[in-house]
Every structure is written in C-alpha cells, then in structure tokens.
Fold this protein.
Amino acid sequence: MRNSYVVGVSAVALSAALGMSSVQAIAGGGAPRVLTVSVADYNAALVKQAGDILTVPSGLATYAVNAGSLEINSRFTVTLPTNFTFGSQPSFAATSATTFALTSGGIGSQSATFIVGTTPLVAGQSVALNTFSVAGATALETPIPVVNALPISLQSTNNALITNNDPAPLTKPAFGSEPGASAIFVGAIQFIDLTSPVLGTKFGTDPAQDSPTAVLSAIAISPELVDAATQSVPVLQPSGALNTLSTADTATVSISGLFNGITSAFSSATSDCTTPASTGTVSPSQLTIPGVAINTEVFFCVTSNGTTLLTQNPNGFQPTVTPGTSTDFIGAGVNNEFPGLWTYFGGGVLSVTNFFTGDDSGYSSLLRVNNAGTGPVNLFALAQPDTGGTPLIGSLGSLGAGIGTVFTEPQIATATGLDLPNSGQRATMQLIVTGDFGDVAASSFLVNPSGVVTNVGVLANQPVE
C-alpha cells in the first residue's frame, strides 16, 4: 500500500521551483507568451523613392513572458516578411538584465537569431526590438492597409525545459503602407433657377441676380498622418519620421456628377470664384481639375453656357484625388463630409413613365402634356435610356395656360438625342417644368396600328428637391 503525504509548501513556490508561472496565471488561461506590435505604416510613394530601404522605429514588436522563461543559452529568433532583409544589425532592449547576442542572420538576411545571456527573461518581463533598418520592402510600394499588414514573427527555442519553447513562431501584422495624402471634401448647395427668362440655365433664385458661375465645393488636401483604415496608426516617411509632402506638390481632382450645360471648371483661392488658379476639363459626367495645391483650402467653381438646361444633382458629387505630376504620394483617401446638392428653384420635375419605347411595327409612343394652370410653362424632356449613361435633356418649348398637346417619339428624339430604334429599346421619361408645375399633368401612350391605346404610363409627380 502506497502512502500519500502533504508537503508544506505553497503551489506558487513549487511552480517557481519547476520553472513555471504562477498557478493563477495558468488557471486564468492567459497565454504564456504574448507578442504585441506597433505597426510601421509608410507612405507607399516615398518607399519607392527610398529604394525600398526603411528605418523601423523602436518598439515595433514586444515579446512578453507570462509563464516560464527564456533560459540562458536558449535561442531567440526574429523573422521579417518575405523578401525583406535586415539593413542594420537588429538588437533588443529587455526590462531585465537579460542580454541577446546575435549568433546568425542579421544584415542581409530575412531573420536573425540571438543567444540569451546574463540572466533568464522570466514571467512578468518583456523584450522589445530597438530601431533598425530593412531593405527589400518592395511590397510596400503598393498600399497595404494596416488590417492586412505584412507579418513579423518572434520565437523562443532551444530551452532546456521544452515547455519554455514556443511551439510555433508568434506572428503579428507589422508593416503597412498608405497612399500618402488625405483630403476633406465639402460640397455646396446651389439652386438652378427655372423661372423665366433664365429657364434653368443659371444658378440662383432671382433672374436679376442669377449667375452662370457658382462654387461647387471646397477641398483641402494634406499629408496623410494616420492610416485610413483605423485612423490611429501614424503614417511614416522612410526615415521613420512622420509623413510630410513637398510644398510644391499638387494633385489632380476628378469629380463625378451630372454636368449637362457646364462648359468650364476651375479652381479658386476664394469661394466667390473670383481668384481662378487652374482650369479643368468638363464632360457630361465628370470634371477634372489639375494643379490643385496641397496644405490649403481650394474651391472648385463651374460656369454654364447660359443656354442649356442644367441638371439637378440630388445625390451630390463624388471626388477622387490622384497625384498628377507629383511623386510624393500615389493618391488620397477622401472624406466626403457633404457631397453637395444642385436642385431646381421655381418649378419641378414630373415623372411620366418608365416604359417609353421606340416606334416599331406600326406601334407609336406618344407623350401627352396638359397645362391646367393660369400661366404658361416651359417644358424640358429628361430621358434616361434603360441602357444607362448620362440622362438626356432637351427643350420641348412653351405650353400655354389651359392647353394640352402631344409629342411623338421622333420629336422627343430630336429634342434630346434619345435613340430608341425599336420597341425593344426603352427609357424612363420625366418632364422638367418651369413655373407652377403642380397644374401640369403628363402621361405616355403606346398606340397600336389601329389607333388603339395599348399602354398608358403614369408615375407620381416629384416636388422640387
């Protein structure tokens, strides 16, 4: 029969004698070793300029011992991401007298292995990487968000007590890169005056003061100081200092929207558009303005031709920023605080039908409009083909009080440029009406070869936005 005896020592003392952590730490389920990382996040454009050689700030990685120890003469290895190599000799700073002497790898290698000396690194102590340089960071020439940062790993091996070894390297994301610039965009609210004699060709609410020129937005472009994903990780130069850009840098800004009737776009130092700086280009769906200064607020302005109906932009505008001829950044994340708004004044929009088809096989599409008001109104057709693209706008002329009329599909096509070659081609049709549009009604008809109406399209009216 075997006797059992209770030995009068504490569990803590026993675990210490065996080289283990406290019972409380084990029972609590805490990891015996923990790797924490402060991501080094660089301006991707400057990485390329620096030939992919980077200074890494101290404290990139910290290895904490919560249980066991890194024994004297054990090995401690740090490994960089694929294709990275050490450009300088790496070293560690411990919270104890423990030393780390390089035994293999280091400069020119992806990894470095150290011998632990002087005293073990025990529970409650930690070791962190000092500053060092890396080469071969080509991958960072393309932005890599912090959440997808390239990894670094650390591992303790060759301890006499095998439970002190890390079964696998401790790995954490450590190296990221960013476009290098950031921007804040704020759109303006502008009214398009539908009242006579302007008829939607200028901005304002009073024909006597309406203007063909209006401010569209303001933008401020600056060096990217924190990462876009978390807004918490500093963006660095290759030297390890905080990111900066040259005062000579400029950007090209493209703005998507609906720009029917806009003939020019330019930047201005003031919101009244009286101090033009650079001239852009205009298409029906995009403005592009080059030479936009950084580190200052810049205003974007547009000018209409004064004869073409302008289009509402109820959803505002979406900007993108590219570096133009500058090489210090490759783009900019844009904080679109308010996208802006262009809306009609002195009239409104009538939704007519989403089934306006081309004439085909004796069938004809007609648009009927009736003005039950006491004054004349001006009509503009707004057609959106089902195939997509920029909405098409054209004048249908004036309609007197108490008068109704019918427009044919060819008349709509002539006014707007809408191309519906057969009944298989369709468009959504709206009318823009000046004046008291509440007394104007519209609908579409599809008439067969015998003159019988086979389809009537009527949608709810839309008030001015």
Observations:
- The helical segments are 11-17, 23-27, 44-49, 409-416.
- The longest strand covers residues 213-223.
- The chain has a mean pLDDT of 90.
